[in-house]
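Quiz preparation item.
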């Protein structure tokens, strides 16, 4: 059996060697055993200790893989950016005039803008809401005088909700209610007390408005109402459930005297125009009073019957100072920046600011809407 791997009665021998000069005499079955030899040699080589260079490379690789990786930085979508200084606010146009026809007004009050830039006007003397474009051209109107759904009695403010479908909210003041409609079907509904008044902290289970004068929509679609006659403000969630209510009549820090309007900023802070006390009050999203500023007077930061408030894209606050015939601008912390309009405004009330930095101010005495352009420092 020289030169062959012979089969024995007990099976194959563990190892046998064949001269390389005679490969052709190897049976197929025995030749298939050669890959096993290669496999064993590989296993033995893997078990052998690594040379120093290989160990060094392996250690370096493991070290690089186990290095601590810094987590990605999460940047808030509402992170403050440095606001450019305002150089001036210049008068550019007047929209409308006194009357009952299309694009004419009687005692125009609250204003708001939709996503197309159309201007919604609470035309309180005509008991309707009018929609005009930036040039004052008539687009449409809502409502007539009355007490039924879709009718108004002295509407004093409007607000647009963009969060889901576009909704129009109207402060139907002398009917003591807030009405709203989808801008597609234009069917109005009343924010009924039975739905709004779930019990909170043992308070009454019903809410009754008295001369609600202001309405605004928050960052997440919540609805804020200034209940002027009850000297308070109320916050409702997107389902119409009351989640927050603050205020009683008086002059103390937590009290109001005839509040007229409010606005929220991107952080959820709420700014209230406390008209009868001639001041602005700032609350956080939980209803905690953070700050207030203003006293009665005509100097910077003083008011005589402030009426409405709005916020621009940089976070500046604009307040219509009705009896001082001007609009005042403040930082979000209440620092007076400048005022404008004293040469063109008679009794400014409503205010709305567009994406292209136009300021619309309703003049309740002149029965028109003045338009101004904000100029920021580049």
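Solution:
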């Amino acid at each position: 059996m020289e030169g062959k791997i012979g089969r024995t009665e007990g099976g194959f021998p563990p190892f046998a060697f064949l001269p390389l000069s005679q490969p052709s005499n190897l049976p197929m079955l025995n030749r298939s055993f050669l890959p096993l030899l290669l496999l064993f040699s590989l296993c033995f080589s893997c078990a052998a200790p690594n040379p120093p260079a290989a160990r060094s490379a392996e250690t370096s690789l493991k070290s690089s893989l186990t290095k601590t990786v810094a987590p990605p930085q999460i940047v808030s979508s509402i992170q403050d950016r440095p606001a450019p200084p305002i150089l001036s606010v210049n008068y550019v146009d007047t929209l409308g005039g006194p009357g009952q026809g299309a694009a004419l007004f009687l005692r125009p009050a609250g204003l708001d803008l939709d996503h197309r830039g159309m201007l919604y006007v609470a035309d309180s003397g005509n008991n309707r809401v009018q929609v005009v474009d930036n040039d004052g051209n008539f687009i449409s109107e809502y409502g007539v005088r009355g007490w039924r759904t879709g009718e108004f009695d002295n509407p004093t403010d409007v607000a647009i909700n963009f969060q889901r479908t576009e909704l129009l909210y109207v402060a139907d003041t002398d009917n003591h209610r807030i009405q709203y409609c989808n801008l597609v079907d234009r069917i109005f509904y009343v924010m009924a007390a039975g739905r709004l008044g779930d019990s909170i902290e043992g308070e009454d289970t019903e809410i009754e408005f008295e001369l609600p004068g202001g309405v605004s929509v928050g960052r997440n679609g919540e609805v804020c109402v200034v209940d002027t006659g009850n000297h308070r403000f109320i916050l409702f969630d997107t389902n119409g459930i009351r989640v927050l209510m603050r205020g009683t009549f008086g002059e103390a820090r937590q009290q109001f005297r005839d509040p007229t309007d409010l606005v929220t900023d991107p952080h959820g802070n709420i700014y209230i125009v406390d008209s009868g006390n001639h001041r602005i009050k700032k609350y956080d999203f939980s209803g905690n009073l953070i700050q207030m500023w203003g006293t009665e007077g005509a100097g910077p930061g003083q008011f005589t019957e402030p009426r409405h408030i709005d916020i621009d894209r940089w976070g500046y606050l604009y307040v219509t100072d009705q009896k001082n015939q001007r609009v005042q601008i403040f930082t979000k912390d209440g620092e007076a920046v400048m005022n404008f309009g004293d040469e063109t405004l008679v009794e400014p009330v409503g205010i709305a600011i567009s994406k292209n930095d136009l300021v619309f101010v309703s003049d309740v005495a002149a029965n028109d809407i003045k338009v101004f352009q904000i100029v920021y420092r580049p």
